[in-house]
Amino acid sequence: MRIEVDQTLCREYANCVLEAPDVFDIDESRGKAIVLVAKVDPAQHAEVRTAVAACPARAITLFD
Q1: So what's the pLDDT on residue 64?
Q2: Which domains does the chain have, with CATH numbers?
């Protein structure tokens, strides 16, 4: 699983960080979500899918 955050859509709601704090964070200098891992551990897949669904801006895309 690979994750991309569209920086033009991200509005810093941080729902992704709340749902998957080991995978997402907010870049304080830009105020946008960032992905902390290059590849998501299979044990975190459900958590990441919940984080994606929780994004009101729909700024996160998953690639399986």
Answers
A1: 83
A2: 2-59 (3.30.70.20)
